[in-house]
Amino acid sequence: MKILGINETTHDASVTLIEDGNILFAGHSERFSKQKNDWFTNDGLIECALSYGKPDTIAYYENRWLKKLRIATRGGFGGGKPYYLERKDLRWVPREAFSHHHSHAAAGYYTSKFDDAVIVVLDAIGEYNTSTIWVGEGKNLKRVYKKNHPFSFGLFYSAFTQLVGLKPNEEEYIMMGMAAYGDWTRYYNKVKEYFPSIDDQKYGFHNGILDWNETIDEQAKFDIAAAVQKVYEDRLVNFMAMAKKITNKRKLVFMGGCALNCAANTMLWRMFDDVWIMPNPGDAGSSLGAAAAAYGSHVNWEHPYLGYDLGGEYPVSEIMTELIRNKIAAVATGRAEYGPRALGNRSILADPRDPDIKDKVNLIKKRELFRPFAPVILEEHASKWFDMNYASPYMQYTPKCLKPDLIPSVVHKDGTSRVQTVNKEQHPGLYRLLSEWYAVTGVPILLNTSLNIKGQPLLNDENDILEWEKAYNTKIVR
Length: 478
Ligand SMILES: [Fe+2]
Description:
Largest sheet: 5 strands, mixed
Number of helices: 16
Number of strands: 17
Strand order of the largest sheet: 3-2-1-4-5
Strand content: 15-25%
Radius of gyration: 21 Å
Low-confidence stretches: none
Bound molecules: fe (ii) ion
């Protein structure tokens, strides 16, 4: 039986097609429409999914009528008629809907290797829920705790993202990067007033921070970012401790947009025996979540390379030639990543030993100069280069770098790196590339950042490659 999971009418629409627990396709709307964080699905995306088969049923990621009611009564945004309903070929397919947080929880638990775990979902807001705790035992997934708006980790973080001049619901990751450049003590007490405790939440945040009465100069933006990150981390530790106590579980699945905060995620390894964060923990992962909830059991999760297929073998020797000649190689090959990070198939790879490479890549990408780049490393070498004793295949944690002088272009201001580890099963081509790079340089690490034109989503198909090559007058290795 084929199930088409759909997430739309919120930032970052996506669809997933599964068959008997196997994931046939999972992709983001933005990669087809070229509109970053596109709210609605489109024909290109749906047709690409349907090329893997016609669905017997559709699973929708939230209760849209309940959400409409919440928006009408409490404010916020989202809603609208899902685009897929316009398509004649999908109109008569039977469908069911799962709550927003149920879809998040199912995406996490049913892609994990755990059969006994606590699942924590923290985001801005679903229908009404903003923070939920679930227990996963065998096939069963049961909610054991909920907290509704106005309490919200996500809305708190987004409101301050807006306050420092960034785009809420999109650029939270930039504010997280800014935190390393700020002094958290300057605004900690003031920021904490906006998020005092679980039971004393007075701000709704839907309209942003309206009563900030101090001037925000350039340094203040970084100090506010640092304070917000610190308050978020302190509250997160409290919430996770509560989840552990309520459920008595030692394995954690963490989902919702808040699970994209990789700096805070790093702390979770000190609290739990094992941690799983699905590589697409925000709303875009909920098309898979809804499909998995409808399936009602674990799906066969192997890797996130589930989107549009460019075909081809991983071009290891061509990438090596580019890296040795130019220190930078743009790569587009195989299936696109499902999730926000480029993990090797739509990536710019570069030599992390060169201190000037960061500025060169930033120039290509026209990004803010303070923003760090991530390293991709052979898994068996990870603990020698970074303070970590776990794998991080999806760039979800930021351990301290142990040899920052040797790889200056992938170490953040605070001495940490957002590490991607690679083993042979996960991505044989990338593993082979890193092994060859290690043999030549003695460093098992490359810089890895997303291949996109500024302001646009990750490259997806052949047309995007031509456009990129024209814009930058360079060849993409494929
Ligand atoms: Fe969400």
